[in-house]
């Protein structure tokens, strides 16, 4: 019987045109099932290719499962592979369908062709269906005893897959012991490697509950096994060699002679073409000689040439990996690589991530003998077309200067950068000049002479502008134009959106005032008034602190703001020595690439705040006794977790209304002044419109210095009436939350008594109910809690107010976001909500 004609191809073979195409595929597969006519296998191949193509792009073709299994009765190994791929993809999600594959897979496990036996066994172990475990034990036992090495290789890894499906079935069948015998006696190196890999994982997992498994795990590091593997290491492929080298790096030799024996056996691995093998061998050498200082130093000399060769040959990705390991070694022994600095010069064709790492290497190996050459090279990179590399090069020059190498020449080079008239070069140079002046104050005269000629209008980056402002305040006595430059910056206060710049500006104008009071009095008054009116809490607090300090005593204020300073001898290291040692212990792993120990990117307890906040997603609708709950708060169980992602759905950000504990006057940059220019420094300092300082009444300074809590005063509730019987289901709440923009956003502190009461979050919900504000969902663990409230305005129109409230009990701070049907009423509701919250805990 001739094979049926193939159907017409669709215009897009990777996407089926609809159910009709899947039906056509099913029909044609069914017609070809069991057919042995000439050309039937070729027709099956074309159909299988289409099915796999659809499956690859995410089209559900699980309805063809039976037909695919029926068509698998063939000796064509290509068809077998495609069928196994299809079955493995759909078996786990369709356990009932997976049962249909058992017969033909078990039959293939007994096929005469070892390739088919191996493929069938691999597919059978990859089904990962718990109720099919009993069908795996027999074929695995046969596979471990198979005369063909490929089948034994597959079976060794299949045991590990079985262990992850059912550990008890794997151990009860005595598969670990069989793997151990294979590892010690099998002539095929790949079988030995797979047995070793499986046993390491199985015994490591079992060691926590079984003493026998713990002993077996320790036996993997026994001298006979280690030497058995070392003597055969040349037979293994690169992956297996890395596995063995990692095992040997944990082996503890009995004496120094054994250390030298192992190093002699592995000497030729340093010339291996594979970079992973070379790095694995280096790890063994370094760990074995840690207790032998002289030999350890010689190991550094020995491994230097292989590492430099690997770095300069191969792909950029390999160069980066090797450079990361070199960087770690340079941190431990910089002198050994100081003569090879030219290997770390950047090449034009290298990607930026390799260049950046090379710049770090040049910084690390710089010393008295090579600083001039390295700095000369780095200065060339400052004109690089790649702006990020130019920035890194300038930073590298500054870091070398901070290491006290050839400071005179480097300062001259940095000052020349300021003449290049490139914004990013000027910005990076200003930051470095600031750091240099903190460490080498004696260079202030030369630096200030150049910095004074820079226009603040040409410096836009916040860090660079902050550095310039710091120098204007610190060295205002040496810069004639300093007060006027600061005054101009203060006049443009509203145009500066960076909190960092505003904070530096407040401090700089204070310093300048104590050094040149007549010229700075107006500027200081304007700065303090602008700072007090600032909606950013840190800027407001610093301005208020300076204002209160000046009211208290001018001489004390000068000692606080502008004390005598000592040169900074050492800048803080970003990594502790303990972390560096941990990374060194994990040599030849991702820890070196990430520059952090593995537990910092694998353990849940070390995830960032963002990751943890996502887990506040355990929000659930509050379950309360029916007698206490209002009708609107009793929901069905399927409403749970409806609000988990609402905070992520916010796309519209409204204006921020920051609530402060202090009432600041409106800022007018044209009229604000602290004192008249005729008043001497010791005169009474006051600003019209600002509250007078009363130490007996105001405790604001306590909070500003971290001595207490700043509590927002209880505002008078506005005339806004709420509906006591408001009702809103979770689905409607979620739709409204995703549609409405934020009408008000606040951050304020709560009373200590409220923090204590928050130990039982239910009390807050009942408290807010008493003010006709209902809670629809809540969650979190101490100290972070998250609540969603809603309320409805009484009368017409009956608009809703939606609230997201984040409470941190450790800092006693509350963040509130309000969305409203009527945005004009959001302000009144915000005040009412804050007033209700301020009474919590009474």
Automatic annotation (TrEMBL):
<protein>
    <recommendedName>
        <fullName>Beta-adaptin-like protein</fullName>
    </recommendedName>
</protein>
<dbReference type="GO" id="GO:0030276">
    <property type="term" value="F:clathrin binding"/>
</dbReference>
<dbReference type="GO" id="GO:0030131">
    <property type="term" value="C:clathrin adaptor complex"/>
</dbReference>
<keyword id="KW-0472">Membrane</keyword>
<feature type="domain" description="Beta-adaptin appendage C-terminal subdomain">
    <location>
        <begin position="720"/>
        <end position="838"/>
    </location>
</feature>
<dbReference type="Pfam" id="PF01602">
    <property type="entry name" value="Adaptin_N"/>
</dbReference>
<dbReference type="InterPro" id="IPR012295">
    <property type="entry name" value="TBP_dom_sf"/>
</dbReference>
<dbReference type="InterPro" id="IPR015151">
    <property type="entry name" value="B-adaptin_app_sub_C"/>
</dbReference>
<dbReference type="Pfam" id="PF09066">
    <property type="entry name" value="B2-adapt-app_C"/>
</dbReference>
<keyword id="KW-0653">Protein transport</keyword>
<dbReference type="GO" id="GO:0012505">
    <property type="term" value="C:endomembrane system"/>
</dbReference>
<dbReference type="InterPro" id="IPR016024">
    <property type="entry name" value="ARM-type_fold"/>
</dbReference>
<dbReference type="InterPro" id="IPR016342">
    <property type="entry name" value="AP_complex_bsu_1_2_4"/>
</dbReference>
<feature type="compositionally biased region" description="Low complexity">
    <location>
        <begin position="7"/>
        <end position="17"/>
    </location>
</feature>
<dbReference type="GO" id="GO:0006886">
    <property type="term" value="P:intracellular protein transport"/>
</dbReference>
<comment type="function">
    <text>Subunit of clathrin-associated adaptor protein complex that plays a role in protein sorting in the late-Golgi/trans-Golgi network (TGN) and/or endosomes. The AP complexes mediate both the recruitment of clathrin to membranes and the recognition of sorting signals within the cytosolic tails of transmembrane cargo molecules.</text>
</comment>
<dbReference type="InterPro" id="IPR026739">
    <property type="entry name" value="AP_beta"/>
</dbReference>
<dbReference type="InterPro" id="IPR002553">
    <property type="entry name" value="Clathrin/coatomer_adapt-like_N"/>
</dbReference>
<dbReference type="InterPro" id="IPR011989">
    <property type="entry name" value="ARM-like"/>
</dbReference>
<keyword id="KW-0813">Transport</keyword>
<feature type="region of interest" description="Disordered">
    <location>
        <begin position="1"/>
        <end position="22"/>
    </location>
</feature>
<dbReference type="GO" id="GO:0016192">
    <property type="term" value="P:vesicle-mediated transport"/>
</dbReference>
<comment type="subunit">
    <text>Adaptor protein complexes are heterotetramers composed of two large adaptins (beta-type subunit and alpha-type or delta-type or epsilon-type or gamma-type subunit), a medium adaptin (mu-type subunit) and a small adaptin (sigma-type subunit).</text>
</comment>
<comment type="similarity">
    <text>Belongs to the adaptor complexes large subunit family.</text>
</comment>
